[in-house]
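Onboarding guide, step 5: your first structure request.
Type a short instruction followed by the sequence, for example:

Predict the 3D structure of this protein.
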Amino acid sequence: EDFLTLIFKAMMKDALNSSHPVSSAVQSSEQIEEMFDALSYIKGASLLLMLKHYLTKDVFQAGIEVYLHNHSYGTAQSDDLWDSMNEITSGTLDVKKMMKTWIVHKGFPLVTVVRNGKIISVQQEKFLYRVEPENWTSDASYLWHIPLTFITNRCNFTHCTNAYLLDQKSG
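The system replies with C-alpha cells like these:
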C-alpha cells in the first residue's frame, strides 16, 4: 500500500510537462544531483516491475543474474542491463529498444482501449495532468513500446496471460 502511494505521487510529478526522463546526458554535477530524485527511483522501480511481469519472473531473474555476473566488481550503464535481458530472450524481444522508450521520455502514456464486438483497438498518447505554459514542449513524437497483458474468458491470471507489445501509436 505504501509503495502504491509512492508510485501515484511519482506519477503525478511525471505527468507534468516539467518532469524529466529517468536517463539523460548530463553536463554538470548539479544536473547529476537533479537526476537522482524520488521520481527517477520510483519510476525506475515501476519500470523494472513492468518488465518482470512482461518477461515472466524466471526470465527476468535470469537476466538479472547475467547482468550481475557480467558486471560484478565493475561499472555499468542502463544499456548493460537491457543487453543482459536481450541475452536471455535470445532475440525474441528487443528489451533495450523497448525500455529505451521508457527511460528517455519524460512522462508516461495514456492507453485507450476500445472494444467493438470481438475487435479490440488500443491507442497511446502522452498523458499530461496539467499543461504548464512556461515548460510546454510538443510531445507528438513520443512513442512508447508498451507491454500489454490481458486475459480472456478462456483463461485467468493464474492459468494463462496473453501479451501484446504496442509499439505504434495504435494497434
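Each response can be followed by summary notes, for example: The helical segments are 2-14, 29-35, 38-55, 57-71, 78-89, 95-103.
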